[in-house]
Each structure stands twice: as C-alpha cells, then as structure tokens.
Write a structure and sequence with these properties.
With 148 residues, the chain is α+β, with helices and mostly antiparallel strands. The protein has a single domain (4-143), classed as Gcn5-related N-acetyltransferase (GNAT) (Aminopeptidase). It has four helices and seven strands. The chain has helices at residues 13-22, 29-34, 80-94, 108-116, and strands at residues 4-8, 40-47, 50-60, 63-71, 98-104, 120-130, 135-143. It has a seven-stranded mixed β-sheet with strand order 1-2-3-4-5-7-6, with helices on both faces. The longest helix has 15 residues, at 80-94. The chain binds coenzyme A. This is [Ribosomal protein bS18]-alanine N-acetyltransferase. Its main location: cytoplasm.
Amino acid sequence: MPDIKIQCFTPDSRSYEIERLAHAHPWSLSVFCQSHGPAYYNRQLVVDEETVGYIICQQVLDELTIFNIAIDPKHQGQGFSHYLMQDTLNYAANNGMLVFLEVRASNTPAISLYQTYGFRELAKRADYYKTRNGYEDALVMKWQSEQN
Ligand SMILES: CC(C)(COP(=O)(O)OP(=O)(O)OC[C@H]1O[C@@H](n2cnc3c(N)ncnc32)[C@H](O)[C@@H]1OP(=O)(O)O)[C@@H](O)C(=O)NCCC(=O)NCCS
C-alpha cells in the first residue's frame, strides 16, 4: 500500500515543475507563487514521500473557487485527483461553502472529474481562454453540498 498524505503547501520547485508538466498553458511562476496565503485553501498530495499533485483554491466568505488542480502526468490515470477533490469538498461541506470553478471547454478529463463530484455547468464564457491558434470557451461550474 502506498503511503498517501494530503498536506498544506507553499510553492516550491517541485510543485511548479508539476504545473509546467501538467498544463498545456501553465501559470507563470509569479502567478503560481502569488496564489498562496491566508485567502487560499491549498493542498498537495504526497505519495511515498513524492509530491504528485496539488489543488489551489481561493476562499472568499462562503465561496471556494478551485483555481488549479494538477497531477504530474507520470502519475495521472491512477485515481490520485480523487484524494484532492474529496479533501477539498469535505472542507467546503464542513464549512457550508459553495464551490465554483472555470475550466476549458476542451478539457474532457477535468470536466469528467468535476461531473463525477456533482459539479453542474452554470454558464459559458465565450472565447475566454487563449489557445495556440485562437480562443476557446470556459465553462463555469458550481458545486453545492447536499447538506446545504
Ligand atoms: C484533471 C486531472 C487533475 C485528473 O487527474 P488524474 O489523477 O489523472 O485523474 P484520476 O485518475 O484521479 O481520475 C479521476 C477522474 O477524472 C476523469 N478522467 C481522468 N483522466 C481522464 C481522461 N483521460 N479522459 C476522461 N476522463 C478522465 C474521470 O472522470 C476519472 O474518474 P474515474 O476515476 O471514475 O475514472 C489531470 O488530468 C491533470 O492534472 N490535468 C492537467 C491539469 C488540468 O487540466 N487541470 C484542470 C484545470 S485547472
């Protein structure tokens, strides 16, 4: 059995390496480093002492927004994102928070992950994200605990 831990984290070279490896359009190092602090609920997933992914969320009053979730490509497809999603949604449910996110309309793996947890599409922002050749839509999604 692997040793699996979910921990608070501050940006470091390993987490930014995952950011660059996992995303086709990674955040800049400065945006990555700024997305931490008291207004954030950020967790990293450590498997057998290796950081394999993280989730970055901003909290404002009773709303939590998932800004970023990433798993190192060499560890994808093994169920690791579920640990981060479950931890984050437990936190939101325990604190009576709604959860929002935006995702590229072409990001099938992420949309499928979010739908698994009951996220519903709230709106579409046309041509919101840059692509290599132009722009693509963003889906705005919302999650609410069944307890609320
Ligand atoms: C989205 C992401 C975090 C999923 O992480 P993962 O650890 O590979 O996913 P898991 O193996 O835990 O799978 C969780 C769910 O994601 C979905 N999923 C994962 N890979 C998928 C794929 N290739 N195609 C379709 N759905 C997929 C499925 O719904 C899956 O549910 P299941 O376990 O019931 O099959 C990962 O693909 C990633 O880091 N992508 C790049 C960064 C990104 O796009 N982040 C989201 C926007 S910020």
